[in-house]
């Protein structure tokens, strides 16, 4: 019960933060959980988040995963991070 309440609180906090920051293409997260998605998400890897207000309201994030495509994943699989401009530039370069 306490874990479920904690997860709910984390999602509420995440949604509020994303609404405040107006999520854009240059936002990044670190994967802290990949249950059922081991082929798509690597633990402790940085992923780019694409804007999707509907997904965020549902507790999900639109992530560019290992396939190079964007898919929805539970927001509690990730922790948002701030990256220096140089890192952001490197992470968003097209190969």
List key phrases describing it.
single chain; 95 residues; alpha+beta; SH3 type barrels; five-stranded antiparallel β-sheet; 3 helices
Secondary structure blueprint with pairings:
Layout: H1 2-21, E1 27-31, E2 46-50, H2 53-57, E3 60-64, E4 70-74, E5 78-81, H3 85-91
Antiparallel strand pairs: 1-2, 1-5, 2-3, 3-4
User: Averaging pLDDT over every residue, what do you get?
Assistant: 83
- In whole angstroms, the N-to-C terminal distance is 45 Å
Spans of 5+ residues with little confidence (pLDDT < 50)?
none
Helical residues, percent: 25-40%
Query: Structural class, please?
Result: alpha+beta
CATH class: Mainly Beta
What's the oligomerization state?
single chain
Please identify, by name, the CATH architecture.
Roll
| Number of contiguous helices | 3
Spatially, the strands of the biggest sheet line up as: 4-3-2-1-5
Beta-strand percent range: 25-35%
CATH fold description? SH3 type barrels
Give the total of beta strands: 5
Radius of gyration using CA atoms only = 13 Å
What's the structural domain tally? 1
The biggest sheet amounts to: 5 strands, antiparallel
N-to-C order of helices and strands? HEEHEEEH
The shape, in one word, is globular
Please give a quick description of this structure.
It contains three helices and five strands, in the order αββαβββα.
């Amino acid at each position: 019960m306490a874990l479920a309440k904690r997860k709910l609180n984390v999602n509420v906090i995440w949604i509020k933060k994303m609404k405040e920051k107006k999520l854009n293409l240059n936002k990044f997260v670190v994967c802290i959980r990949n249950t059922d998605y081991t082929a798509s998400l690597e633990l402790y890897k940085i992923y780019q988040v694409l804007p999707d207000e509907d997904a965020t309201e549902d507790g999900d994030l639109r992530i560019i995963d290992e396939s190079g495509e964007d898919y929805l994943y539970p927001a509690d699989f990730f922790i948002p991070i701030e990256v220096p401009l140089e890192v952001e530039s490197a992470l968003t370069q097209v190969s």
